[in-house]
Amino acid sequence: MSSLDVQGLTVFYGRTEALKGIDLTVAEGQVVCLIGANGAGKTTTMRALSGLTRPRAGAIRLDGADIAGWRPHRVAAAGMLQVPEGRQVFAELTVAENLAMGAWLLADRAETARRQDQVLARFPRLKERLDQPAGSMSGGEQQMLALGRALMGAPRLLLLDEPSMGLAPLFVEEIFSIVADLKREGTTILLVEQNASAALEVADYAYVLETGRIVLEGPAATVAHDPAVVAAYLGG
Amino acid sequence: MFAQQLVNGVLLGATYALFALGFTLMFGVLRVINLTYGFYFSAGAFIALFLTRQAGFGIWAALPVAAMGAGAVAVALDWLLLSRLRRVNAPELSSLMVTLGGVLALYSAATSILGPDIRRLPPDLVASDAFVLAGLRVTTAQLLILLATAVMVGALMALMRGTRLGLAIRAMAEKPDAAGLMGIDTGRLAALVSFISGCLAGAGGVLIGLNFNAIHPYMGEAMMLRGFVVIIVGGLGDIRGALIAGLLLGVIEVFTAGYVASGLKEAVAFAILVVVLWTRPSGLFGRAVVRRA
Ligand SMILES: Nc1ncnc2c1ncn2[C@@H]1O[C@H](COP(=O)(O)OP(=O)(O)OP(=O)(O)O)[C@@H](O)[C@H]1O
Ligand SMILES: [Mg+2]
């Protein structure tokens, strides 16, 4: 468990300003969602948080320490783990090997085995496929693996970038129910989603991002009833 | 005669394979065609020359020290020339040009400092006697080459397949960003891969120096051409492929020299490269990569 406080986060791609100084806060134990249209800058935000993209300016405080500009492995070691957009499982490695990579920061073998049991209990589907190359699984199964791989690292704060992207409805349901489970267990989560209705349902607080700026924020239930949000994101 | 040629070819090919393994590892994991790679081969040979001539080292001590010295050169050059390009995700062409410029500078500097002459390892470095086994002649130097190659290839395979570190290298080869998100320090792992590659190249330089008893600054350049043939025929980034293609190239060169004409051996090697690329554009063994080791 852990808290995140972002201020003035600014990212440039060459000369284009993809993030124009955004502020957001994820309080300990909360699920916060970030919604927005294609190209709004959601993934850019996530990549800047996890250190994959270097921000031009701004502060990223994780439990008080400013981690802006840290390389990804240090951010991961600080307990903030990202499930990237498009899953990014290691396709050529087996499911078991992917999970082992998720526990890279953990030197203890017994603890790794214990966590793997927990992850497999959560994702029974992965259990039958432990020795199968991850790339040979369906998109939904790969998303389960990507989530399970991150959980192997026992995140204090989990960043999920569109976990439901491109999945069949059944899998989408399963993903959101897992997010709800994790929340109940006390994991702090920042969730990026295009599936705004499902995201707002599970979240405590929500931010709406448009072309690199936060244009609206508030408790998820309030944001879900905002007329502009209903019109733009909830198909109202 | 035929069997003897085969033995000589396999021994030569083993060194080619060793050299190409480092090249293919570097390409497979760091995704750059690093043209300075051949220089590590020269560096290894010269370090061994210095160690045996000036510092009184025997071959068994000189080989690992020279290999690690070449590994250190590789790490330094990677850091100097490529690490910043990697950080900004520069296009492949820029790393190709940077390493081309770098290697030309290195060779000309080395030649002006060391001189262009061919040098030789001390004559008494390895016993000059040969073993005769079932009518086949194998020199002590050849046995040493075979043993050293087997040990290094075995160690590399064990690392890649049997350890967590090898797993991380394969993961990084496939998706460097995702590997970083797992907490893997990709910068340090890249340096380690450079080091291992440099060691393989350097060891190759010592062994080829021993095999042909000729060491000169540009020796890595001739080797690079073979390195390209082997890693392309074997499949870029494919460790097993490099091993097999290296052995094949050695055998083909020896047979061409023995039965056709010595001057044609390189022509044949490159003709094979062209034919393989025409018929199997991703190498003889398809699409396997470092991550499958
Ligand atoms: N590597 C990059 N280089 C240049 N521009 C980029 C890069 N990545 C993203 N962009 C641009 O930055 C803007 C924000 O992209 P981003 O991927 O963060 O959007 P997103 O909100 O995640 O969209 P989506 O819902 O499609 O995933 C877009 O205009 C995009 O074209
Ligand atoms: Mg995105």
UniProtKB/TrEMBL annotation, chain A:
Q: Which Gene3D superfamilies match?
A: P-loop containing nucleotide triphosphate hydrolases
Q: Give the source's domain of life in one word.
A: Bacteria
Annotated ranges, domain ABC transporter: 4-236
What SMART domains does this protein map onto? AAA (SM00382)
- GO molecular function per UniProt: ATP binding; ATP hydrolysis activity; branched-chain amino acid transmembrane transporter activity
For this UniProt record, the keywords arranged alphabetically read as follows:
Amino-acid transport, ATP-binding, Nucleotide-binding, Transport
Classification via SUPFAM superfamilies? P-loop containing nucleoside triphosphate hydrolases
Gene Ontology BP terms: L-amino acid transport
UniProt lists the family membership as follows: Belongs to the ABC transporter superfamily.
Name of the protein in its database record: ABC transporter ATP-binding protein
From TrEMBL, chain B:
Q: Which InterPro entries match?
A: ABC_transp_permease, BCAA_transport_permease
Query: What's the source species for this entry?
Result: Limobrevibacterium gyesilva
GO molecular function terms noted in the UniProt entry: transmembrane transporter activity
Keyword vocabulary terms for this entry: Amino-acid transport, Cell membrane, Membrane, Transmembrane, Transmembrane helix, Transport
What name does UniProt use for this protein? Branched-chain amino acid ABC transporter permease
Q: Name the source's superkingdom.
A: Bacteria
Task: List all membrane-crossing ranges.
Answer: 6-25, 32-51, 57-81, 93-114, 134-160, 189-212, 218-236, 243-261, 267-290
Q: Which GO terms describe its biological process?
A: amino acid transport
Q: Cell membrane: is it a keyword of this entry?
A: yes
The similarity annotation says:
Belongs to the binding-protein-dependent transport system permease family. LivHM subfamily.
Q: Where in the cell is it found?
A: Cell membrane
